[in-house]
Write a structure and sequence with these properties.
Oligomer: single chain
Order of helices and strands: EHHEEH
Helix content: 40-55%
Strand content: 15-25%
Number of helices: 3
Radius of gyration: 12 Å
Shape: globular
Length: 62
């Protein structure tokens, strides 16, 4: 049984999902609050990392 690779999002896609600017997305990556990888120099964020970040923020707010 194989597992599907996680969908990789671009920074602009994450910006749209979180409704924040480019600088904020890169700040979240720099501070390790949002997991990302580089693919040939292009920054990509796994879909689950965005979901985990949002769930963590909800948990902190509760």
């Amino acid at each position: 049984m194989t597992t599907a690779a996680p969908e990789l999002l671009t920074v602009p896609e994450v910006m749209a999902l979180l409704k924040v600017g480019r600088t904020k997305v890169y700040d979240l990556i720099r501070t390790h609050r949002l997991v990302s990888i580089k693919v040939d120099g292009c920054r990509r964020i796994p879909e689950h990392a965005v979901r985990d970040f949002v769930l963590g923020q909800i948990g902190e707010a509760a």
